[in-house]
Amino acid sequence: MNYLSKMFAFLLSVILLFIVPAYRICWVTDQAVSKQVNYDTCEFVNNVRHKGFVSRRMYEDFVGKLSNTGYVYDIEMKHLKEVWDYVPNISSPDGYETANFFDEYPTEYILKDIFSSEEDRYFMHKGDSFVVSITNKSKTGSMVFMNFLGDNGFVSSIFTKYGGMITNEDY
Q1: pTM of the model
Q2: How do residues 53-82 score in pLDDT, each as one tens digit?
Q3: How far is Cα 122 from Cα 131, in angstroms, rounded to an integer?
Q4: What is the C-alpha end-to-end distance of the chain, expressed in Å?
Q5: Average pLDDT score over residue span 96-120
Q6: Helix (H, G, I), strand (E, B) or coil at 54
Q7: In degrees, to the nearest 5, what angle opens at C-alpha 129 toward C-alphas 127 and 132?
Q8: Measured between alpha carbons, how far is residue 108 from residues 3, 77, 96, 105, 168 in Å?
Q9: What are the residues whose beta carbons fall under 8 Å from the beta carbon of 9, sequence distance 6 or more?
Q10: Contact 166, 129 (CB under 8 A)
Q11: How far is CA 139 from the centre of its chain?
């Protein structure tokens, strides 16, 4: 019985002295990377909101900053444009009423316009909305530790979503 208690104490000491601190270091690193990704995303979106366009250089600089973290990300951009339209309404005296809808332009549309036009820019108008979502697609150190402990889920702690209304048309 004394042998089993010594073996248990040895395993517990290995876990407490090596595995827990190593996991903690990986987790803190993931949190630092998450803060940096959030900061870079906010900076990019605010730049787009205040200029009213996304240029090829702005996008490539943003992707370069994200790649400096050493991880692979899924970058999703959305441009929402408010459109007013007439909708039939029998109860109205004119027979119609105005309603607003949002046209949505996804990442593929924005990138196609940036990389295929001669201006290298995707233009938006004051009052439109622009949203960027970032999700980590590669395994981090803390995810490797969790997989080692039996967790088979792939839930990244590095993700952010930021957006807002276009406030200026600087073109």
Answers
A1: 0.80
A2: 999 999 999 999 999 999 999 999 999 998
A3: 14
A4: 80
A5: 86
A6: strand
A7: 155
A8: 63, 9, 35, 8, 24
A9: none
A10: yes
A11: 16
Q: DSSP string covering 144-160, please?
A: HHHHHTT------S-EE
Provide the β-strand partners of residue 73: 136
| Helix/strand/coil for 38 | helix
Q: Which residues pair with 129 in a beta bridge?
A: 80, 165
Closest CA to 131 of 151, 153, 154, 110: 110
CA distance 80 to 164: 10
Give the per-residue pLDDT at 67: 94
| The amino acid at 92 | S
Q: Residue 168 in 3-state DSSP?
A: coil
* Burial classification of residue 5, based on how many CB atoms lie within 10 Å of its CB (0-12 exposed, 13-18 middle, 19 or more buried): exposed
